[in-house]
Amino acid sequence: MMKFLFTLALLCVDWGIATAQEPKDLTMIVGTYTDTQSHGIYSFRFDQQTGTHVILDSLVYVNPSYLAFGAESKRFYVVSEVGDNTASLSAIGFDKQTGKMTLLNTQLTHGADPCYVEVAPKAVFTANYSGGSLSVFPLTDNGLLAPMSALFKGGIGGPDHARQNLPHVHCVKQMRDGYVLASDFSADKILSFYFDQKTGKLKGNGVAGKLAHDSGPRHITASRSGKTVYVMSELSGAVTVFRYHAGRLKLLQTVLSDSCYARGGADIHLTPDGRFLYASNRLKNDGLSIFQVLNDGKIKKIGYQLTGLHPRNFNITPNGKYLLVACRDSDVIQVYRINKKSGLLLNTNNDIRLPHPVCIQFAPNR
User: Fold this and answer.
1) DSSP assignment, residue 144?
2) I want to staple 305 with a disulfide (CB 3.0 to 4.6 A). Which of 252, 289, 332, 345 is the partner?
3) CA-wise closest residue to 83 among 117, 113, 115
């Protein structure tokens, strides 16, 4: 009997299955576009057992299109996505109990339209879409942002002369082994870097892997083991599966997510147990493709869930029970319950009404 319980405990750790220690309430931060009546950043209490929410606070901030926490909940980092030389990254102080947010400090990204944030132990990275670059910001001992220390440029080479004529970097993903991947949208490549956690410095490492021409790689996610990487491409609307090792990618599979060829592929996430993968599609037939993850890491498309308009970003609760999707042009975050057996989604209708929501993050427990 003891052997059985020990084995079950190991499975829970490996698969990310919810346990009794998991908190009932999550603190959630939402970024919005502020071209309508939005304040900017909002905090919520979200019940991951019932799928209901309570608003806590808001903070005035221009176009906080993406934000991310580090290992602790007492601060997060957010970009101001604007297309000029005022584009910036800010550190925000956060009280998890009250949801109160306070601006700590801000640094220029030196790349227009920053659209992604990745937090490392001693640095923060931003992907700057119109700037076509990756910016590196060292962190001080108290978690504030030092001025940008390095800037890496993306390339061109894709066949879409309207959307790949200039460099665009859209996502930065730190891997467990210290390497960092970045989506080089206009060159149809994934770039590789190495991050030295002792010094906080990022060094170029070349091309990690190539995608089919006219892909436009956008967002990147990885399995819990770090051995499999999944890339959602905006232009081709396809999910590309790679085997990963030491900053290099080996192509395994490409599966179409956007069957309407709308050229609006967006976000991609795995469930905490790694059994299902979801990818959002925009511009036509707006919704989420649902994939089963097979034993070898490859995927099989098993369903499609229509959503509100322009599902730019989505996130999954730590217990794997709910998927929340930010539907920008419907001014709503929709809350879907995940069937843990089939991976299919059920709309709970517990909508969160906000002007132009575009990023959802949950505060870590620490």
Assistant:
1) P
2) 345
3) 113
Non-local CB neighbours of 186 within 8 Å, separated by 6+ positions: 132, 154, 155, 156, 157, 158, 163, 164, 165, 166, 167, 168, 216
290 φ, ψ (degrees, to nearest 5): -115, 125
Q: Looking up tokens 């083991």, which residue turns up?
A: 225
Instruction: Tell me, yes or no, if the pTM score tops 0.70.
Output: yes
pLDDT tens, 2-60? 343 433 343 343 333 444 467 899 999 999 999 988 999 999 999 999 999 999 999 99
Q: Write out the DSSP string of 192-219.
A: EEEEETTTTEEEEEEEEEE--TT--EEE
Cα 104 to Cα 152, 201, 274, distances in angstroms: 26, 23, 36
Contact 65, 358 (CB under 8 A): yes
Q: Which amino acid is at 270?
A: L
Give the position of tokens 């795995």.
270
Contact of 150 with 172, CB cutoff 8 Å = no
Rounded to whole angstroms, the Cα distance separating 76 from 319 reads: 22
Rounded Cα distance between 152 and 196, Å, is 16
